[in-house]
Amino acid sequence: MINKKVANVSEALEGVKDNMTFMFGGFGLSGIPENAIAELVQKGVKGLKCISNNAGVDDFGLGLLLQGKQIDKMTSSYVGENDEFERQMLSGELDVELIPQGTLAERCRAAQAGFPAFYTPAGYGTEVAEGKETREFDGKMYVLEHAFDADFGFVKAWKGDAAGNLVFKGTARNFNPNMCGAAKITVAEVEELVPVGELDPNQIHIPGIFVQRIFKGERFEKRIEQRTVRQRD
Amino acid sequence: MLDKNGIAKRIAKEVQDGYYVNLGIGIPTLVANYVRDDIEVEFQSENGVLGMGPFPFEGEEDADIINAGKQTITTLPGASFFDSATSFSMIRGKHVDLTILGAMEVSENGDIANWKIPGKMVKGMGGAMDLVASAENIIVAMMHTNRAGQSKLLAECSLPLTGVGCVKKIVTNLAVIEITDNGFKLLERAPGVSVEDIKNATQGTLIIEGDIPEMQI
C-alpha cells in the first residue's frame, strides 16, 4: 500500500503558492472542500486562478477567498449567488470565464485521462466558441476545448483510506471525481478516514492512484443553500 | 390564457412512458407535478442524480442530496448518483429523451437565448449550452412576451445565443408552437386566446394552417 495520508490540512497544502491554478470540487455548496478553503484563507495566498463550477456564497465556500481578494480569475459555469463576487466582477478586479458546465467537467476529465483536447457540440454558434477551432463531424458542428492545467486539485469525499481510495455520497460527488488526478497534486479531504482494507474494492469510486494526499477534515459544516421541504399530509 | 402551472400541465402531456427527462429551473420544474402517474418517467438533474423524487419532509433534508437548483431533494427507488462528466455524457450522448427549459428569446429557426443580458449581471449558462447543443427533443417553457410586453418569439434573437437551431417546440401562456423550416407553426391556442391574440404577440413568422384547436389540459 502506498501511503497518501498526511497529518492535517496544513501538511496537505504544502507547496501552495501565490498565482497558482487550483481546482475545487463541489456543486453549489454541496461537496466543496471546506477544510482546504479554510486553510487557503488562513495562508493568505493571493493571485489565485480557480476552476470551480460555482463561486460559493458571501460567507461560505469560495466566497471566503473572494472576501480576502485572494482570487484573480474564476473559471465557472454558474456564479452570482454572491454579492462580493458581483462587485469584484463588475469593477474588473476579478476576471471571470464562464463556460458550459459539461465542458467544465470534461476539461477536468480530459486532464485526468491524458487527452489534450476534445470536441464538444456545447457552445457552437455562441460567444463561447469565439476564437476557438470548430469542426464538422457527420453534418454537425463541434468546438475544440482544451484540458485544464492546474497545480492543485482540492476535492472532498465521504470516505477514504490511506491508500487514497475515495467513496463519495449523494450529489456531493459532482465534479470531485473528475478533478482527481486532473491537477499536478490532488488533495482529498474526507469525512471518514477508514483503515486500509475496510472499503470494499468493488465500491470504490476513485482509485488511490489519482490522489496524492488525503486527510480527515477537521470540520464539515455542509451548509444547505436552498432548504426546500414539503409538508406532511 | 395559461398561468405558469398551466404551461407546466400542457408540457406534461408531452412526457411519454419510459422517458428520461431533464427539467430546467422555473416553469420546467413544475412539470414534474403534472406527469401522469400511470407512466414510468425518470428525472435527471445535471448535478448528478437520476430518479429524483419530491422535496424532503422537514427535518429530513440532506446537504448531500440536492438538485441543479441547489434545492434539497429526495430520490426514488431505482435512483442513482454519478459524477458531472457522467451526467453530461448522458446529456451530450443523447441518452436523455426530453429537455424542458426556459428562455428569454427563441427565434423562428430554433435558436435560443437564455443566459445573458449584456450590461446586466451575468450568472452563467450552467448546463444549458450542453443541453441545447445535444438534446434531440427540446421544449421551451416560457411566457409569450416579456415584462415590457415585447414578443419573445422573434425572427432573430437579439440576445447572446445559448444554442443554434435546437428548439423543437414552445409552450407559452398563449400557444403551443412547433419550429419548422419555414418558421413558427401554430399548433394549439390556450383557453380563451384567439389566433389574432397569438399573431399580435409573435414577432417572428407565424404559420397558421386551418382551424387551430384549443389546448386540452
Verbal overview:
The complex is a heterodimer of chains A (233) and B (217). In chain A, strands 1, 2, 3, 4, 8, 9, 10 and 11 form an eight-stranded mixed sheet that branches. Chain A has a three-stranded antiparallel sheet with strand order 5-7-6. Helix content of chain A is 19%, strand content 27%. Chain A is an alpha/beta fold. Chain A is globular. Chain B is of the alpha/beta class. Chain B is globular and about 50 Å long. Chain B starts with a helix and ends in a 10-residue tail after the last strand. The chains are: A alpha/beta (233), B alpha/beta (217). Chains A and B meet through α4, α5 and α6 of A and α3 and α4 of B.
Explain briefly what this protein structure is:
Chain A has helices spanning 9-12, 34-43, 63-67, 83-91, 101-113, 176-179; strands at residues 21-24, 48-51, 71-76, 95-98, 117-120, 134-137, 140-146, 150-161, 166-167, 183-194, 213-216. Chain A is an alpha/beta fold. In chain A, the strands form 2 sheets. In chain A, strands 1, 2, 3, 4, 8, 9, 10 and 11 form an 8-stranded mixed sheet that branches. In chain A, strands 5-7-6 form a 3-stranded antiparallel sheet.
Which key terms come to mind for this protein?
A: 233 residues; alpha/beta; 11 strands; globular; B: 217 residues; 10-stranded mixed β-sheet; 3-stranded mixed β-sheet; 5 helices; 13 strands
Q: What spatial form of chain A do the alpha-carbon principal axes imply?
A: globular
Mean pLDDT value of chain B: 96
Q: What would you report as the Rg of chain B, rounded to the nearest angstrom?
A: 17 Å
> What is the straight-line distance between the termini of chain B?
12 Å
Low-confidence stretches of chain A are: none
Count of DSSP H/I helices of chain B: 5
Task: State the assembly state of the protein chains.
Answer: heterodimer
Q: What strand line-up does the widest sheet of chain B have?
A: 4-3-2-1-5-8-10-11-12-13
What structural class do you assign from the helix and strand content of chain A? alpha/beta
The two chains with the largest interface, and their residue counts, are: A-B, 59 and 52 residues
Question: Termini separation of chain A (Å)?
Answer: 53 Å
Q: What would you report as the Rg of chain A, rounded to the nearest angstrom?
A: 18 Å
**Category by helix and strand content of chain B:** alpha/beta
Give the SSE order of chain A as H and E letters: HEHEHEHEHEEEEEHEE
Write down the overall mean pLDDT of chain A: 97
Low-confidence stretches of chain B: none
Share of residues in strands of chain B: 15-25%
The percent of residues in helical segments of chain A reads: 10-25%
Helix content of chain B: 10-25%
Q: What characterizes the major β-sheet of chain A?
A: 8 strands, mixed
The arrangement of helices and strands of chain B along the chain is HEHEEEHEEEHEEEEEHE
